[in-house]
């Protein structure tokens, strides 16, 4: 079963653009991440909200991606910009356009 995760971050006041820049850098590195199918960064009408939508071949691939040096460095860079993780929902992704069969 494919593993998905949707996370809503709330940036510290005035830091949403810096947080999205950091997360977009992470997205640029995802083609090198084994097992990453989908990694999107989005914003909404909430002034400080940033949404990250991920799909991985399995949870182990996701967990392994967090251990690479470059990802750990980006996490360290993003952490001070984040006021809170407002919501995080793990998903069992069943299918849809763009997913591997």
From TrEMBL:
Keyword tags: Monooxygenase, Oxidoreductase
Tree of life domain: Bacteria
Keyword Oxidoreductase found: yes
Keyword Cell division in annotation: no
GO MF assignments: monooxygenase activity
Every ABM domain range: 3-90
Pfam entry (one): ABM
Protein name in UniProt: Antibiotic biosynthesis monooxygenase
């Amino acid at each position: 079963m494919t593993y998905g995760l949707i996370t809503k971050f709330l940036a510290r006041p005035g830091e949403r653009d810096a947080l999205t820049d950091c997360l977009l850098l992470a997205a640029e590195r995802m083609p090198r991440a084994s097992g990453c199918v989908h990694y999107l960064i989005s914003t909404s009408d909430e002034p400080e909200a940033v949404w990250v939508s991920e799909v991985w071949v399995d949870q182990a691939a996701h967990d392994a991606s967090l251990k690479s040096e470059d990802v750990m460095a980006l996490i360290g860079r993003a952490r001070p910009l984040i006021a809170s993780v407002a919501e995080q929902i793990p998903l069992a992704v069943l299918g849809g356009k763009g997913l591997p069969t």
